[in-house]
User: What shape does this take?
Amino acid sequence: MRAYQVLTGLSSHSLSAMRELIGLPKRVIAAHHKANGESIVALFDYGHFTAIYEAMIDNVARFDARIEVLSDRRQLRVSYDTPYIRNLPTSLEVIDSTDTETETRVFGPDYTDPFALELRAFHDHLVKGTQPKTTLDDLRNDLALMAEIVDRLRESSGI
Assistant: This one.
């Protein structure tokens, strides 16, 4: 139960960001949890690459959030801090390799307050009639992904 609460709470933001950045996985290969559901690892099959999702709630006083995508020749790393403290940096690092060279590009840091961005977008939706980026279909897909993760968690724990 606690793992499902973590998935639908804390993890909902990261899984939604992953969906927007790299799409939905074809399937959840495996998932495992420890610490009464407050440490979750899931392995996603994207066809041409695999993604590992990890969420952990612990007692270390820090907020460490990032999305990393590793493929054969490219690594993407989006690093972001807690939105509850204003103006903390967000950055994107892209590492590309060929047979002869490796290039690293860093975009940012960006210090824009994420809550201010959300409030501006919400204001535009109300005043200008713009549509939110996340649709009800996106929400359904996110919940279906969480349910599939829970299915794999049950398999790994024999429930």
User: Anything to note?
Assistant: Residues 2 and 26 are 25 Å apart (CA to CA). The two ends are 12 Å apart (CA to CA). The chain has a mean pLDDT of 87.
